[in-house]
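quick one before i forget lol
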Amino acid sequence: MTIIRCTFASFVVGLFFLGAPALAQNSSDRPAAISGFVFVDNNHNGIPDKGEEGIAGVVISDQVNVVRTDDKGYYRIDHLAGNGFVFISMPDGYKSESLFWQQAVKEEINFPLTRSSNPVSFTFIQASDTHISEKTMDRMQKFRSIVDSVKPDFVIITGDLVKDALRVPEKEARGYYELFRQEIGKLTTPVWCIPGNHEIFGIERHLSLVSTQNPLYGRKMYHYYFGPDYYSFNYGGFHFIGLNSVEFDDLWYYGRVDSTQIEWLKRDVATVNSSTPIITFQHIPFFSGGFSMSTYEETGPMQSLVREHGVLQYRQIVSNAREVLAILNGHNYPLALAGHYHFQQKFSLEGVQTRFEQTAAVIGPSEIRYLKMPSGVTLYRVSKGMIDGGTFIRLDK
C-alpha cells in the first residue's frame, strides 16, 4: 500500500494509506467526547498489548480542540467538534502503518505507532495542480517518474488535485476524485495533500446543477474521500502545517483561512517550541506577484475581486494573510508553500524571515502574456534545521 497524507481513509501522518472513503456523518452521530491511547506497536498488530508503552506529549486534534497525551500516552477530547475526524500530529521519531486520522464515530480511538529514524537531513517534493482526468494520465506518469527517480522522503501536493468538482455533476466529480486516489496510490513514497478550489464540490450551481443539500456539497466531498482538510505533522525536526486556504460564499470561491482554522492554528502552534522550524503548505497563496501580471477579470470563473460577506477582497490570494501570519510571528517560520497560479514563484521581503513560494503545475506548461512557465515540481533539501532554495524539476524534458 502507498502511504498517502492527502487525507485518504488509510493514512499516516504526512503520508497515508489508501482505503475506503470516509462516510458522511451527522454531528448527532458523534460521541460527545473521545479518549484513547497512543502507543508503540511493537508487534505491528494495531492493538495495545501488554508491555507496549504509551507515548507522552503527542498532539491529538479534532480540527478544533488540540490536546496532548499524558505521561502514559493517554488523551481525552471533551466537547468533540470539527468535521467528524480525530487526527494525530505525527511526532518525530515515529511512523504509522495505518491512518493518521480516524472517523469520530466511537468513544475510544487508539493510535498505534512504530519507532523510526529521526533524520538530520531529508528531502521532499512539492507538487501542485495535478487537475487529474482520464485525458491527463500522461502527466501523472511523468510526475511519478520524477518521484521514483528522486526518491524523496515524502511528497506534498498543494491542491487542485482533480480536473473539476466546482461546476460538474456529482457523478463526474466523484469520478475525478476516485481517479486521483487510484493514480496517486501507485506512488511508493508517502504523500501529503491539501485541497484546492477545484476540490470544492458543486458550488457553481448554475453549471453543476447540484443542490446545497447534497451531502457531499462544498468541502464535504473532500472530507468523504480524503479526511481532514487541514492538519499538522512533524518530520526531521520540522513542524509542517497543511492549511485549507479556500473559502466559498454562494457561487464563488476565494482565498481565505476560515475562523475555525484560525483558532485551531493558534492551538496547534502553541504546542510547538518557538525554535522549531515551521513550514506551511496550502493551495491559494498568502502573496503572489504573478497575479499582478494577469489580466484583470471583472466577472467569470477567474474574476479578480469578490465580496466576502459584503466586503470587497482580492480573490486569488488569502485575504486574511496578515491574521494568519500574526499567529506564526515569533516562531521560526522559514517557508510558506502554495500552488494555484501554475507558475513557480518566489516572494520575499527584506526583514521578513519567511519565503513565500509557489511551484508550477503538474497538469502542463502555462503561459500568460509573453511569459511561459514549464510544468514541473520543486525539490527541497533539508539539513540540520536549514532548508535550501529548492530545485525546479521539469516534467517535460
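fyi Helices lie at 137-150, 170-184, 205-208, 220-226, 259-269, 321-328.
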